[in-house]
Every structure is written in C-alpha cells, then in structure tokens.
Amino acid sequence: MDAVDLHIIRELQADGRLSNQDLADRVRLSPSPCLRRVRRLEDSGLIRGYTAMVDQVAFGLPITVFVRVRLERHTAEAVNVFEEHVGLIEHIQDCYLMAGSSDYLLRVVIESLEAYEVLVRTRIHAIPGIASIESSFAFGSVKQSRVYPRPGPRRVPEAGVGGAAGQRW
Predict the structure, then answer these.
(1) 125 FRET partner, CA 20 to 30 A, in 14, 28, 32, 62?
(2) Is the per-residue pLDDT at 96 higher than 50?
(3) pLDDT the model gives residue 101
(4) Residue 64's closest CA among 116, 134, 102, 103?
C-alpha cells in the first residue's frame, strides 16, 4: 500500500459515494488506474464494503450506552457463548475485547431508558457466564470519525544489531 492507496482510502472513508471520476480527480490519477487500485484494495480485503451513515437520533435511537462486561470464567467455551449471544443482539453496535478490569466493552444504541432496562434484563442478563455489567450513558457526542489517521512509518531493526537489548529502531 503506497501513499496513493492511502489517499484513496481516506477519500472513500470521507465519502463512499464518490464517483470513480471524482475520486480519480481528488487523488490525481486518471480514472482507469484509480478504478484498478480501488478494485485491488477491495479484493485484498482492505476495503471491506460501503455503508450509509445514518443520524442515530433522527433514526429513533437517541441513547448511546457503553457497557463494560466481566465474565465469571475465561474458558474458550464461556468466551464463545458470550460472543455468539452478543452477535445476535442488534442493539449492540460494537463489541471490543478489552485488557484491564473489564473483559468486553459494548456500544449499545437504544430508543429509551425503559427499552435499555428491558434489553439488559431479558437479553444481556440471559447470557450465561456474566459476572458483572456496568453501564455508562453518553450525554452527547463530541467527535465521531470514520476516517482513520495516517499510519506512522513502520520501523524495522537495523541490520547487524543483535539481541533485543541491542536493537535500535
């Protein structure tokens, strides 16, 4: 992936509906090479798909809840059961495996506090193996971005330097 590929990705993250001509103009390529690069990025799996960004409040889901979950046990079976159940609950938009005091962080969008209570009581508490659930409600959103920052340069150890203690980056 070179600088042009990064530019293509950032432009598509900002506006996935760009025509190939507009994208080519923005990244300073002619349309054919631009389209070839986009297809290659899609085929490689780097670009996984395209979606519409929908206003959460206007859609009828004004409440965002961040839910920290701790499991009773960390066996492969307990983890698989939890993750399978989470995958079936559509109000859970994101699920992150965490390091630290919580095992998972969930982002839930929901229509009301009452609906969240029902979700927790009937769906989340019903997942076997949960030790604790802690909810934090977002008052609002300060920033939401779907455009990744440019990755920094990758560093490789200098040739001829031996051992971890002697590596220079």
Answers:
(1) 62
(2) yes
(3) 95
(4) 116
Angstrom CA distances, 60 to 55, 57, 111, stand at 9, 5, 6
Length of the chain: 169
Q: Is the pLDDT of residue 154 over 90?
A: no
Q: What is the 3-state secondary structure (H, E, C) of 91-130?
A: CEEEEEECCCCCCEEEEEEECCHHHHHHHHHHHHCCCCCE
Residues 47-72, mean pLDDT to the nearest whole number: 96
Burial code (b: 16+ CB inside 10 Å, e: under 16) for 54-75 equals eeeeeeebebbbebbbebeeee
